[in-house]
Amino acid sequence: MGFGAYAITHRDNFQWREAALWTAGGVVVGATFGAGAQWVAGALGAEAAVTAGTAATTAGAAASSPAGQRTILWLEEQLPKVEHIMAQKHAWDRLINLSGNALQDYRAIQPYIQQAINVGTMNQIGVNKQGQAIVEFVATINGQQILVQAVQIAANVFKIGDAWVITR
To answer: Model-level pTM greater than 0.90?
Structure first.
């Protein structure tokens, strides 16, 4: 999970050394949480084992990142959402030269979204039907204020919902 999280979030700047650190961290944390999940499963039954195992895997992925960096689940397989984020009204042309290819441009803005999530101010703005926090991050990057909305899947793991450059 640690390797997968690193590979997904660092496509453009992949480094084997960093990937190895994420993988090793994931192994240690996953094993620790996995052992706890097995103990919980014995105490609570099989259904609890599945839930505890899923939580352990997600926690392992989040904690495996160096210094507890935030992990982002991108939307590249959801083209309508990507096209929405890349709509002209979201003003990404203030930060990058847009090519007109939504997926290519989405990949080009990912470092800005990553930076906003890592250093921006986070506020919870709601809760989804699954009980997960809906949060937004606001950060000023290259003189532009960026707002990112995401669902918090686990500690330090966020799934992008929307993102834009704030215009006034």
So the answer is: no
